[in-house]
Design goal:
Blueprint: E1 8-15, H1 32-51, E2 57-63, E3 80-83, H2 89-102, E4 107-112, H3 120-127, E5 133-137, E6 143-149, H4 166-177, E7 181-183, H5 193-208, H6 215-224
Parallel strand pairs: 1-2, 1-4, 2-3, 5-7
Antiparallel strand pairs: 4-6, 5-6
Helix pairs in contact: 1-6
């Protein structure tokens, strides 16, 4: 178990990078080997991102297991590693947040590994919020971040996971519970081929504007999408 040094817990949810089991919606554009290589870049950039977060202990929740061994050793030596538990995404997030609260953390924030260009400032805004719940709305109708303060707010029941209604249904549940909500700026996940092409362009613009580096993902995208 990690030694607790901060009051905040920053959790990255990630899939175990195994051939044929990650980012399968990209299979119409890329072969399995390239998809795996791309998702591994997503992971490297996401890990680099959470390491920039101040005032938080870092965790990685891996699904379905750490079979590949990617998260063993130097990749996450400075992070607490656990396997996600639950029947759906809501169950898994509930358990991850509940476990952090039981360990004494005052706030827990979860992001996924499908938004490797997400600004660190959005994460830090979530960690600094005084609201019960913080959500980062995603352009696909879900959310790229969820944060909770002080207690586990039951917002995960009755949500139709994997649809464009996730954010709407979560917000409706929050209104019923009269929980205080803060919404972050809108961002995006990378799921399908169109998302990936947009992502490549966006990374180039971010770098040209001096707002950040394209990272490992940007370098690979320049190679694999040059003919697409």
């Amino acid at each position: 178990m990690m030694t607790k040094t901060h009051g905040n817990a920053m959790i990255l949810f990630a899939r175990d990078p195994i051939l044929g089991r990650v980012k399968t919606r990209l299979s119409s554009l890329l072969d399995e080997e390239t998809i795996l290589q791309l998702y591994t870049c997503f992971l490297h950039d996401s890990l680099d991102k959470v390491r920039q977060v101040r005032n938080a202990d870092l965790f990685v929740g891996v699904s379905p297991s750490n079979e590949s061994g990617f998260f063993t050793g130097t990749q996450s030596a400075d992070m607490g590693l656990f396997v996600q538990e639950g029947n759906n995404l809501g169950d898994k997030m509930r358990r991850a947040i509940q476990d952090r609260f039981e360990e004494g953390y005052e706030r827990a924030v979860i992001i996924g590994s499908d938004s490797p260009s997400l600004p660190v400032s959005y994460i830090e805004q979530a960690l600094g919020s005084d609201k019960d719940i913080v959500l980062g709305p995603s352009t696909d109708g879900g959310y790229y971040l969820i944060g909770m303060r002080g207690k586990l707010t039951e917002v995960f029941d009755g949500v139709t996971w994997g649809t464009d209604k996730v954010l709407q249904e979560t917000c409706e549940r929050l209104m019923q519970d009269e929980a205080e909500l803060e919404l972050l700026p809108v961002w995006y996940d990378i799921d399908g081929p169109d998302d990936l092409k947009f992502f490549k362009t966006h990374l180039q613009l971010i770098e040209q504007a001096g707002l950040g580096k394209a990272g490992e993902t940007g370098k690979l995208l320049d190679k694999i999408l040059s003919d697409h």
